Amino acid sequence: MVKVKPFAALRPPKALVEEVEARPYDVLSSVEAKAEAGQKSLLHITKPEIDFSPIADEHAPEVYDKAVENFRLWQEKGWLVRDEKPCYYLYAQTMGGRTQYGITLCAHTDDYANGIIKKHELTRKEKEDDRMKHVLIQRANIEPVFFAFEDNASLSAIISDVAAREPEYDFVAPQDGFGHKFWVIDDDALIARITKIFETEVPAFYVADGHHRTAAAARVGAHLREQETGGQCGKGAKCGDEDVCAGEPEYNYFMAVCFPASELKIIDYNRVVKDLNGLSKEQFLKALENDFEVKVIENACAPEGDYRAPGALHSFSCYVDGKWYSMKAKSGRYDDNDPIGCLDVTILSNLVLDRILGIKDLRTDKRIDFVGGIRGLGELEKRVDSGEMAVAFAMYPVSMKQLINIADTGNIMPPKTTWFEPKLRSGLVIHTF
Predict the structure, then answer these.
(1) Of 406, 430, 403, which is closest to residue 264 (Cα–Cα)?
(2) By percentage, how much of the chain surpasses pLDDT 70?
(3) Do residues 85 and 8 make contact, with C-beta atoms less than 8 angstroms apart?
(4) Is the CB of residue 394 less than 8 Å from the CB of residue 309?
């Protein structure tokens, strides 16, 4: 089972939350962040390179120093204030009329090392190193990671009860129009109940978004434990000793927002390719017919929704030379008993990107790019019609069931498979140690 705890957060006063909160550091370029950041914005802490003119290298020593300085100043100015006691927090996000509720808590670093916090993506060491450095210099998890857990009736009842109360924060983000609400759970009995339910009824967390931050947090815990206690978690005992773990250091924990899996929706993560690998459009479409049923998509044929979007697993949409085509994988071209082989990203990679277009490595090939579904299929048309790209592929989204199956079996998804939306806003709550 997972190990969790409440924490006394640093967070903005209610009157300042909309000035402090910000989009996550990794969805904005430095130029975009500089244009978007107001005086009190958390972006001055998460992307401190924007405080230099011209914008500095985000990995420069003075930029890390600026992050520390700004974090201290935000507390001194009262823009971030610590809660008086450890709490849990409920966070709701609304997009397109659908709301998802997550419990903000501290997860244990050892659960990641022991496979109780389960991943579905590979991480890159250089990105882990950068995130680890940020956590260490601040002694804080400035931004939460995004976890899922399999639905639990007891926790769902608690979420419903808390969500019926007046929220501490309630705002609509101006950049995308998504709604955000936030409640403080400070009742001791309810805190104890939440802790017990997680630790006796929830067997695992699944990383939805934030693989590098999760890996970095686990490394921070192990590093500080070795540095400060010789590998012991606190009070002279190895981690796992239940008699003393209640007193272990705060750095053994990191901040996460955890959502019931059924409330989450993964959206499409699409592909665009620069050329047809020397083929004409006619040759390319003919090659597709070896493994797919290919038809021109007519607008009038779509009963509802976006006529360009694939409507089922193992179906794709292709945009080339101003026209959309549907592509349905033929029987025998995939194995639904193989958790990786049955993924549409795998089918497309094997049968089209590799076999026809000659793209062998999605991580390194410069001929391919990836477009999050939040940008809409019109973005695919734009990239192709401009001449920048030759062909685009619209994907059917991965399901949470598929993600959990991948993680439970110890498999890793291909690159750029999942896109979660809405993203967690940063600055609502911060965990320090």
Answers:
(1) 403
(2) 94
(3) yes
(4) yes
What CA–CA distance (Å, rounded) separates 360 from 141? Answer: 37
Q: What is the separation of C-alpha 183 from the centre of its chain, rounded to a whole number of angstroms?
A: 21
Is the pLDDT at 235 greater than 60? The verdict is no
For the chain, the structural domain boundaries read 4-265+422-432, 269-396
Q: Which residues of 130-169 are buried (b: 16+ CB within 10 A; e: fewer)?
A: bbbebbbebebbbbbbbbbbbeeeebeebbeebeeeebeb
**Distance (Å, whole) CA 272 – CA 359:** 12
Q: How far apart are CA 18 and CA 178, in angstroms?
A: 13
Q: Convert the pLDDT of each residue in 293-333 to its tens digit.
A: 999 998 754 445 688 999 999 999 999 999 999 999 999 99
Compute the distance between CA of residue 5 and CA of residue 118 in angstroms, rounded to an integer.
19
What backbone torsions phi and psi does residue 149 show, to the nearest 5 degrees? -140, 155
Instruction: Name the class of domain 269-396.
Output: alpha beta
Residue-wise pLDDT tens digits, 54-64: 999 999 999 99
